[in-house]
Design brief:
4 strands, two-stranded antiparallel ribbon, globular, 10% strand
Length: 194
């Protein structure tokens, strides 16, 4: 896992420009800190300080209004009980309208992901790339699973999701989600400029 994180600037920092865990010496120290206490941003109250996870710096980086969030602006942390709850929030009805519902030829992002690559009528051993590493769709999508033959002839859509984007993955799509997979080596380090 340490080999997947570049050690040169700006990749040696996380999206908030804080040092990353890039070696086996840092990991036990970080684990010890996380076991014995929450990070400073989790302790900061509501929007009162720059280190608060809904503070001025965070809201400038992720502009979203209370009229979009299904939340309680008067409650501490807007009613979100944890930080991930904010990133996977629900919106008020009618805020995130979906075009082309019912048209199965249209791929709809379930969050604010940016299209990267795609293909139709795929074959099991067609090539694809994840973080510039070559893979076969057969391995990448179904990892040799018995469902592999059902994927042949299907459509593949690859998108990148930035760390500060809306993360809720739900959408009115047809079909049934049969399995999910984590592809080794697919960790994505976001670029500081695009």
């Amino acid at each position: 896992m340490y080999d997947q994180i570049p050690t040169d600037p700006p990749h040696d920092d996380d999206p908030f420009r804080q040092p990353q865990i890039c070696d086996h010496r840092t990991m036990p120290t970080t684990l010890n800190l996380s076991i014995h206490g929450a990070p400073a941003f989790a302790k900061a109250k509501h929007r009162s300080t720059d280190t608060a996870w809904l503070g001025p710096a965070a809201m400038a980086a992720m502009p979203i209004s209370d009229s979009e969030l299904l939340c309680d602006p008067a409650a501490p942390y807007h009613g979100f009980t944890f930080r991930d709850g904010y990133f996977t929030h629900q919106c008020w009805p009618g805020v995130r309208l979906i075009a082309c519902t019912g048209d199965e030829s249209v791929v709809i992002d379930a969050c604010e992901a940016a299209p990267s690559r795609g293909g139709r009528d795929i074959e099991a051993y067609d090539g694809c790339r994840l973080n510039e590493k070559p893979y076969w769709f057969h391995y990448c999508l179904v990892a040799g699973d018995a469902l592999a033959p059902q994927s042949v002839g299907g459509t593949v859509y690859q998108a990148n999701l930035r760390s500060l984007n809306y993360h809720r993955w739900y959408s009115p799509v047809t079909g049934t989600l049969m399995k999910t997979y984590v592809v080794p080596g697919a960790y994505h380090r976001e670029r500081s400029v695009e």
